[in-house]
Give the backbone structure.
Amino acid sequence: MTVDRFIRYVRSPSTRMAAFAALLSYLSYAYAHGSWANPALIGVSVFVGVFMPSYAKLSNKADLWASNRFGFVTAGRLGRFIPQYVFNLAVFGVLLWGGALNRDGIASVGGFALAALVTTLASQGLQYLGMYLVSRGVGDANRNVLVGLSINIVLTSFGTAGLPIAREAFLVMGFGFGILLFGIGLLSDLRSLFAPKGGIGLFFGTFNPFHNTHLALVRRALEERGLDKIVIHPTLVPRIHADAFRKGELRVARLESGFQIYETTDKADSNVDYFPTGRMFLPPETRKVLIDLAMAEAGLHNRVEVVFFRETYNKKGFHGVIAELKKAHPGARLHGLHGTDNGGMYVRQIYDECGWIYPWRVLRRDGVSATAIRKGAKGMTSVVVTDVLAQLSANVPVVTAGGRRFRNDNGVLTEGD
């Protein structure tokens, strides 16, 4: 690691959060269990402080792998839960072996294996609650996760010491959050399997660009769910990028083949993956045009509505968009279309948070990739989309497609001369 990278690592909010959690763990367990000078507690606390940022990345990858492999929310949550439980099991085992824990206190909560289970359930639930609040405009991701971790650490340390009230609160919080977290996921999965037919489909995503799998998903959903229509709304600037731009962590570096190329600045968090789906983005106006053209070319323009609630999205994201659509279609049964990649499962979570929406997911097995398209792959987009992308790459001042003309302003397509 170079000096510059090391400095950025130390300055990272994630690194500071890990250091705070490690210090809080040491102080809480040392006070509750009377083990201030215990080598096992000191060693575990240091290890947690150093390893936590890397663990978070591994946990996210496990969640994504399970979600993409099986297409169910419960699978993704188990993918995230199992590694954390194994980790906590090892931590409690080392602390108990090293004499850092009050054995009677641990026995009072069912032993170290059950204690590890309860604290893992509580941690998963508190993190989910924290991110739910972020999506509703309350706090930010780092702060909410830190608050959740802090509550869990303190309550676990005192609960496993066998202190009255703290012990009961520890058990109730863990099992309560576990039932809530996995219960919500299981209900979502059941809705996806046993959904009634008819109603309106919602299809959200970056569509960067709109490709053949998106089109196939629309056709299949219309047929299999018997939908009256599908409403498509592309992201404007994804939430993770909007927040990073606001904080000065990201900037647009250049324009390349009609795509805006994002790059991190010196303010960026070195422990955060800002580009899970790549750093090349078509402007949102252009992505909407591509969807419009693809729907018209496929003869689906009468059954698909492409909307663009800019002000609502910028203020409240897709949660606000769904609220607007519910107002426009009162009492309509809603179905949420999504893939099982990172962006698709994120959209699935939004559907679940916005009420009784019936998910309709498709496992990504066809090899079509927006990332590959952005890198120049051919044959993955419809004729009209391929044509527009070629014109954008040539940077022509006026793009013509589907009998329509669009002014090209640095990749932003606006209809008219």
Observations:
- The chain has a mean pLDDT of 90.
- Residues 373 and 380 are 7 Å apart (CA to CA).
